[in-house]
Amino acid sequence: MKLKRDAAALNSKLLRRPIQKCFILFLIPTFGAFIIGFIYPFLQGIYLSFCKFITTRNATFIGIDNYKTALTDSTFLHAFWYTALFAIVSLLLINILAFAIAYALTREIKGSNLFRTVFFMPNLIGGIVLGYIWSMIFDGVLSRYNTSILLESKYGFWGLIILMCWQQIGYMMIIYIAGIQSVPEDMIEAARIDGASGWQTLIKVVIPSVMPSITICTFLTLTNSFKLFDQNLALTGGSPFEFKSDGTIIKTTEMLALNIYNTFYGSNTAARGTAQAKAVIFFVLVATISIIQLRATRNKEVQQ
Amino acid sequence: MAKVILKDITKIYPNTQDKKKKGKKTEPKSKLQVTDEGVVAVQKFNLDIADKEFIVLVGPSGCGKSTTLRMIAGLEDISGGELYIGDKLVNDVEPKNRDIAMVFQSYALYPHMTVYENMAFSLKIKKVPKDEIDKKVREAAEILDITQYLDRKPKALSGGQRQRVAIGRAIVRDPAVFLMDEPLSNLDAKLRNQMRAEIIKLRERINTTFIYVTHDQTEAMTLGDRIVIMKDGFIQQIGTPQEVFDHPANLFVAGFIGMPQMNTFDAKLVREGDKYFVEVLDVKVELAEDKCARLAARNVQNQDVILGVRPQHIVLTDKGIEGTVDVSEMMGSEVHLHAKTKDGKDIVVIVPTEKNGLDFGMGSEVNMIFGGNVAHVFSKEDERNLEWE
Fold this sequence. Notes:
Chain A has two domains: 2-48, no CATH class; 68-298, MetI-like fold, CATH 1.10.3720. Chain A has 13 helices and four strands. Chain A has helices spanning 2-21, 23-48, 65-72, 74-105, 112-120, 127-142, 153-181, 185-193, 198-209, 211-227, 230-235, 256-265, 272-298; strands spanning 51-52, 60-61, 241-243, 249-251. Chain A has a two-stranded antiparallel ribbon. Chain A has a two-stranded antiparallel ribbon with strand order 3-4. Chain B has helices at residues 15-20, 65-73, 115-125, 130-144, 159-171, 189-206, 217-223, 241-246, 251-256, 289-297, and strands at 4-14, 33-34, 38-49, 54-58, 80-85, 88-89, 100-103, 177-181, 209-214, 226-231, 234-239, 263-272, 275-280, 283-286, 303-309, 314-317, 321-330, 334-341, 346-352, 365-370, 376-379. Chain B has two domains: 4-99 and 175-251, 3-Layer(aba) Sandwich (Rossmann fold), CATH 3.40.50.300; 260-379, CATH 2.40.50.140. A six-stranded mixed β-sheet of chain B has the order 7-8-9-4-10-11, with helices on both faces. In chain B, strands 2-3-1-5-6 form a five-stranded antiparallel β-sheet. In chain B, helix 3 packs across helix 4, helix 3 (115-125) packs parallel to helix 5 (159-171) and helix 4 crosses helix 5 (159-171). The model of chain B is unreliable at 17-27 (pLDDT under 50). Chain B is globular. With 389 residues, chain B is an alpha+beta fold. Chain B has ten helices and 21 strands. The A-B interface holds A 184, 186-187, 189-196, 200, 204-205, 208-209, 211, 300, 302-304 and B 73-75, 94-96, 100-102, 104-106, 108-112, 121-122, 125-126, 153, 155, 169, 173.
């Protein structure tokens, strides 16, 4: 017995040693791809945000001017608040509805498997396509009242909310279903015997137990909402526009990512540096918010 | 603090559930009866549990013991029959209104609450005043010796401590009936023995009706005032530990209760007037008077029987059933000898070490005999104990 074990140990040693020595060789392919595809463009992007440029080759360093312009740009600030409002509303709606559906579908309803599939399906359609489909649907309805989704910013806002809920609830639902199913049946029964009503069981036993799922889902919905682009572009493209007395045009349903895109590819090529600065601010913003959110919900997680 | 009466309690799982699993169901796990309505998990269960009695439901897995307990708890619907707790019919009463508490095998503690909060949970829901909750929780913690862990979360506790918390959670509710579903099965052997003793002590202190489910016959024997032995949804026997040990109602009970298992032989029951003899492997043993009287009262005639004798009751002599020692297990104070008879039958004998247990090494020849007062005769047809109805 002992001999056998020794042999096995020796074997693994002989096999592992040379492999362990040249671990760098195995790291190179993915790490190389990571550098080319992420690290280099990321650093280049940060550098460019301090430059005036039209193409990346002839950039001239101009310091923090781009940031000054970006932070005083009223369209950017509008887009920020608009995005923040959108993120909060969609975060709440998507998570509450997804959890409710997941909870209902784990209660042994007939055909729950079918429902799960159906609810998940919208997720498989791309954002641009969804945007155009929904703009047709909304306009089909709104035209009866002689208006259009492009004419009122509140229609654009709620239209985008409906679209996002429709697309994301199914995905979050799947995560919540997995979470709810991992809550031990015994615990629910213990709560029943302890006298908890269905609602009390949900609030005091089930929800605290699915905190890991809540962390993931709030993280995903929050970052998705902040980074939203395709659907925004396809549904309203920022319409309706508001013309200010100082000549600026505020696109009332334009979100951060679309604002950056429009700044970069707009007619004013001199603003590319500003767009770059906005992108960096955007990154810092999304990263900070998601880290704060992760900290907050992680703290509430418990191990079984 | 209440009696519990189970009257013809039946549990049927409808066939719909079966259909889903039909593909897998090539090998039925147990011999549960299947009717048109579904699988019968518990058959006409009748039991009167006295106030403050400790009842143990015991049997192999799938025998319906847990289902019965869950029906008493209200976690399973009762398909037929009547269940009374106190004097109240509770068939359709919600678990929380049955005045019961339950301890689960998995402890089922709430992982996000501290030990204190776990124990206080049910009282908080009942809106008991805070100082009263505090008093009750601390009292229960004192009884179970977990006061120092009150601020901890369950994950920071060992298995035994968690089980104490689970018991504590039940105690604070001051229930009329205390239900326990295999509470010690998740513990290691040493801890299990320790907790078993704790439960005996606990029972002295909280003095209420206990219904305890286990598959472990040792737990059943040591804890129960009365034991209910179940198999395939049927009650096999109800009796005190001594009764079921001394007078097993059938071959199943005989084999299930007692360690090591009872030895069984194919034998002949011979009646000579009012006397009965068993003939087994060249040996003829006269049964004790009380046994003969009972057999005669039931007018049992000559027949082939299954003879059962517990390993504790077989003694080594100069003449008797001949055998060769196959395996000798030294258990400390006693030695378990596995002897093979001429016709290949295995017999287990327990010999005290201080007597001559160590004299019989493997391969040595032994002669075994048993007294007429410890032989059990079971019908070969239906495996019932022939002495009893």
